[in-house]
Design a protein that fits this description.
Blueprint: H1 3-16, H2 20-27, H3 31-47, H4 49-62, H5 70-82, E1 86-89, E2 98-104, E3 108-114, H6 147-165, E4 169-176, H7 185-190, E5 199-206, E6 214-215, E7 220-229, H8 245-259, E8 268-275, E9 286-295, H9 298-319, E10 322-331, E11 335-336, H10 338-351, H11 358-370, H12 399-403, E12 408-414, H13 434-456, H14 459-472, H15 494-504, H16 517-521, H17 532-539
Amino acid sequence: MDKMGKRTLAAALVALLTAPTVLAAAQGLSDDELAPLVARVEEGVLERAKLAQVMVDKIFSFSELGQQEIETSAYITGILEENGFTVEYAPVGIPTGWFARWGSGEPVISFGSDIDGIPKANQKPGVAYHDPLIPGAPGHGEGHNSGQAVNVVAALALKDVMEAEGIEGTLVLWPGVAEEQLGSKAWYVRDGYLEDIDVTLFTHVSSNLSVNWGQGSGTGLVSVEFTFEGEAAHGAGAPWRGRSALDAVELMNVAWNFRREHLRPDQRSHYVISDGGDQPNVVPPSASVWYFIREMDYEDIKRNFDTAIRIAEGAALMTDTEMSYRIIGAAWPRHFNKVVAETMYGHIEEVGLPEWTEDDHDFASAVQESVGSVPSGMPIALSPLGEPGPRRSGGSDDIGDISWNVPTVTLRFPSNVPGLPGHHWSSAMAMATPIAHKGAVAGARVMARTALQLFAQPELVEEAWTYFREEQTSGVEYVPFIGPDDPPPIDLNREIMDTFRPLLEPFYYDETRFDTYLDQLGIKYPTLSRPASEEDRQDRPGSN
């Protein structure tokens, strides 16, 4: 008997010995029986619209980078514990990670969403031109501040209905820590945190309500830092006595850039020199370069990764240095579940897009114009259900590792402006405004409705596993890029946050004193153009 078959049998036996409402849930409610429960869970979400707004604004104000999401995680877990969830802290040794559980029995459904920000993306919300609160500070330049609001609000509304109706099942919530560095989800999988999960519903900010199934566009990757060790010497007095680790880094980069011509066009690879030495008059005894190596499939990622290792070995030979490397992050290409996606899309059609105001459209158009995009405002038509088609190269997300271990989909919800470059301060402009607030509530409605249907109709979970086994994973073996002893990269971004956290703290959102973060900052929404006085000041010599 397969995994879900054993679980369903166990649930049925429990149901025979318990309340009639639990028996009905174990056998599966009809659509007519489900409809009033859907209406109640929707009502529960709408009653928590204020909580969604506060969470979106609060997490936006923390502006924390990956592996340093200390305030963010403490805030979210505090809400969950107050509402009866049991929280396990620091899974797999990640201090800002956690797994929160409520309920009992099968199915077990997990909600995940990322929590980290982007370097140098600090930006006042509701202002349609570049205007950071703290120049150079991190910010939510992708919009990860919104996803946990979607999940928590949906989970609390769902919990109320499940308790009242005696619906069997377990809810698990968790954060994507350091998603921008692909630094947590592969470790969650490796260490068994998804082993009892039946379905994962992931959420990610977007500008529309959408979900897709099948092999998605984008890439998987290995994030790896190569370090070279040489010998210091006086750069002018005795350079011949040194062995430059920086020379090795530069030779590796030159060799990789020449190799690009002979790699598949779908590959994406990029690097930063994370350690280039201390000062020019000392031959650098240590230097490091950090690579993202992306491709469309496991075999191609692994081949390019192996090539990079050989190039690094060659650079070490040429400079008489020693080379080592560590994996900082990893992501498999994504594959999403057909049954769950189709179920979710039915709810997307029922919920529909938020009612955007004229201010919302004007603000979105101004933001688009500020980055050279065509000003088109917010979308007014739903995206269709995403189905398999021609694959395109592009970005990565470590939800891919989870999707190859558990039936998974990603709900994209409309809390940001379309047409932006991404990983940029412009993507923070809307993320504590009515656009973000309304989009998060819409996402929470879809999440709560979808999860309720999966709990109340467990046959859908069975069908999801049938697709997972017979379609998705038939002939494909998941082989993680991280090894059993690779530690999670918990040192990432520590120095940056140590510098900027004290500067950010005075700007943390205080919901006990201000209705919204815009109110706290004294920003009139929407602010579409820079005041003339500021423009004059910026034009003066010596201004910033």
